[in-house]
Amino acid sequence: MQRIGLALGGGGAKGIAHIVILELLDEMGIRPHRISGTSIGAVIGAMYASGMSGADIRGVIKRMTISEGDSIADVLLRKDLLKWIDLVDINFGRTGLLHGEKVMKYLYEMMKTESFEELEIPLKVVAADFWTRETVVISSGPLLPAVKASMAIPGVFTPVKLDGRVLIDGGGVDPVPYEWLLDECDVTVAVDVMGDLTEGRLPGFLDIVLTTFDVMQDSIIAEKLKRRPPDIYIRPRIMDVKILEFDKAERVLHAAIPAKEELREKLTALI
User: Fold this and answer.
1) Which listed residue (39, 50, 150, 174) is catalytic?
2) 50, 150, 169, 214: which is the annotated catalytic residue?
3) What average pLDDT does the structure give for the chain?
4) What are 52-60's contacts with CB under 8 Å, separation 24+?
5) Which of 38, 42, 129, 260 could bridge 10 with an S-S bond, Cβ 3.0-4.6 Å?
6) Phi first, then psi: what are they for 98, rounded to 5°?
């Protein structure tokens, strides 16, 4: 069996599409040799590497997100959604809107894994050093601080101090971190979940800030693909989903189905 490397990219709520890709690997009986992840890709990658299946992760997301059609009454009647509200730990400082500590505690409850060394599949988590602007790849030691650093979207989550560095979202330097797997795997699969937006009205302030971050990441990915592409590059066609719109989870999952079938064909041809 060829050694499969799986790189899961960043993209906020659009990263829910990764679940569909993981479910395909489960269906095909493919166990990745290595996983790398940035931001939401690091979060889902850590859950999968800990032993959770794609279906397990889908169940977690379904329980903890609000659907587009949910009314206020629906939200108040669902105890699991009330728990999700409890996970929002507001930060009244100046470094970010949310601390992220409660989210990390919940992830630990799901995975029950404290370190990289305890994972069933080796994982590389990508973050960015705020001061030196360097890519930081973490593959050993405490797991959750590394994941928290990788998902620390500027202005949303507070940066993480780790090993003398101030770390922020890895999407700013490496949105789809497949290159860290190329020399260790026979076939490398890169999943880009940046998505696309339909042209329309003049965007608001928050839209401009967060979408500009997406524009920068798209440029980085394009340059990487020119230099040394992965064996398989998959980009689900996710339209008009913004980075924090987790209420559109079902839309994202549905949009990822064609990408799932595309990956099935490509893996079948290569393996």
Assistant:
1) 39
2) 169
3) 85
4) 52/110, 52/111, 53/22, 53/23, 53/26, 54/19, 54/20, 54/21, 54/22, 54/23, 54/24, 54/25, 54/26, 55/23, 55/26, 57/19, 57/22, 58/19, 58/23, 58/253, 60/110
5) 38
6) -125, 145
Q: Is 80 a catalytic residue?
A: no
Asked if 86 is an active-site residue, the reply is no
- Amino acid making up residue 23: E
* Residue 102 burial class via C-beta count within 10 angstroms: exposed 0-12, middle 13-18, buried 19 and up: middle
Instruction: Convert the pLDDT of each residue in 48-100 to its tens digit.
Output: 999 999 999 999 888 766 555 544 444 444 444 444 444 444 444 554 444 44
Strand partners, 50: none
What count of other Cβ atoms lies within 10 Å of the Cβ of residue 262?
15
* Token code pair at residue 15: 């990263």
